[in-house]
Amino acid sequence: TSRSRYFQEASTVRPAVVVDQKEKEVTSGIYDFASLLQLQCEPSFIEDRLKLYETLKKEHDALLAYRAASETKPIKITLTDGKIADGESWKTTPYQLAVGISTSLVLKVE
Fold it and tell me: Which residues pair with 19 in a beta bridge?
């Protein structure tokens, strides 16, 4: 399976590391390892993960679009202060609720 292939690849992939052979500078007794090590290649499993993510994202987006189109119904949303707001399932977002509460709250978040 792709999962076992991932673990197999992850255990065998060794990125090439270049160590700067210059004299190591010491600042307050701490080596600057970021300048000593540079990743020279991207692990091969990254491309597979990105393809899997894109596939799952498309499926999830399609499911949400279907639910928003066919399963929408009116709902009541109880806010932390006890107020009740009207909304629609699969459509109403927390941002829309925040706009309904206070525009200054939204401006602070943006």
Answer: 37
Task: Give pLDDT tens digits for 74-107.
Answer: 999 999 889 999 999 989 999 899 888 887 877 7
Given a contact cutoff of 8 angstroms between Cβ atoms, the answer to whether 41 and 16 are in contact is yes
For residues 9 and 19, give the distance between their C-alpha atoms in angstroms, rounded to a whole number. Answer: 24
Tokens standing for residue 66? 């279907």
What is the SS3 assignment for 96?
Answer: helix
Same domain, 45 and 89: no
Q: How many domains does the chain have?
A: 2
- Residues spanned by the domain of 5: 1-71
Amino acid letter for position 44: S
pTM of the shown model: 0.45
